[in-house]
Task: structure prediction
Amino acid sequence: MSKIVILQGSPTVKSRLNGVLDRVRGQIEESGAEVSVINVRDLPAEDLLHARFDSPAIAEANALVAAADAVVIASPVYKASFTGILKAYLDLLPQKGLENKIVLPLVVGGTIAHLLAIDYAFKPVLSVLGARNILTGVFVLDTQVTWGDDGKARIEEEIAGRIDAATSLLLQEARWQTERAQG
Result:
């Protein structure tokens, strides 16, 4: 069974990104893969700001990433890049912390002008962390995700299809990787 970690980079509890990730997580769970979520906002701020590599919370998060076959890394776009809190956590991953991982970047942005945040902000950092199998990311305009009165996210059909396709590819790649590793 594949193990997949979702790194959620939003500093806010109620974020459109949560709606997107709820959809991704549901698809992963339906596939039978094991999924864990790391909300970087829940990691101790002092540990992140002071780069405490030996923090128990950071060590636990890093262990989840190390054990994963695949990582979904998701963030809203702030100032044409992913969030600072996510960067603070990525700085605490080991130098090759994403080596041999399949990585799917997901970004929610307020304008199409942020579309290239995946290529120019995420991919260089992911590459430095050893990721070589970086799947085509999904950029979601924040207007494509709304919250219903029932508290559930409503995702426009076109972008929902792209999210589902990207997640399916992630699951397929993770399954293949797990099968190869098991011989």
Q: What stands out?
A: The first strand starts at residue 3 and ends at 8. Residues 2 and 178 are 6 Å apart (CA to CA).
